UniProtKB/TrEMBL annotation:
Matches recorded under PANTHER family: PROTEIN ADENYLYLTRANSFERASE FIC-RELATED (PTHR39560)
Organism of origin: Methylobacterium pseudosasicola
Pfam family, one: Fic
Keywords: ATP-binding, Nucleotide-binding, Nucleotidyltransferase, Transferase
GO biological process terms held by the UniProt record: regulation of cell division
SUPFAM superfamilies, alphabetized: Fic-like
Annotated protein name in UniProt: protein adenylyltransferase
Amino acid sequence: MFDVFGDFAERGYLRNVAGLKDIARVKQLEHRAFLTKVGKAIVELSDRVPLTYADILRTHETLFSPVYPWAGCDRLETAPGAHISRGGYDRMFAFPRDIRGAAEHALEQGNDSAFMRAKPGAVLGSLAHAHPFLDGNGRTIMVVHTVLANRSGISIAWQEADKAAFLIALTKEIHLPGDGHLDAYLAPLLREAAAQEEQIESLKALKTLGAAPSLG
């Protein structure tokens, strides 16, 4: 059980606003919040040039404040002594003290339109490695990545992606950055930049990414 606050019995999974202990039901709350707020998140980012770490935090707050009272706060603030692992990999994500630096490295790549067009998978892998939050990371970084991609003149047909194959490529990208695993997977899915409404609808079609994290 992922109980980073140590109060699951009293306040439920990650202190969700409903106090739910059933993670499946919490994930349903996350999904509903995302569908409701993703349009607002895209609009908020539309006039932010270049995107900064504060924009990542704000996007998470916009998407998940209906679910978590700590939405918009990174792991250095919410759980500075805890390290996140997944799938048996204990070095997959940045340590709390390294989150901001990892995210800013990803944004430096993504704000460079030429780099973004050439290596959208590398940028997504860098964002995923930062893993700023206790939960809600996947959808948050997808929103940020979508904005960066479209600014560079491309979009990704996420509705055509296979979840299992994507997650395998993403895991390889995080463990072996620079080897092009995720860029190779995304290559057949690249399209021209999409209108804002198309971006929003594409994000709404996303399936839940991964499972609940664990303490490492």
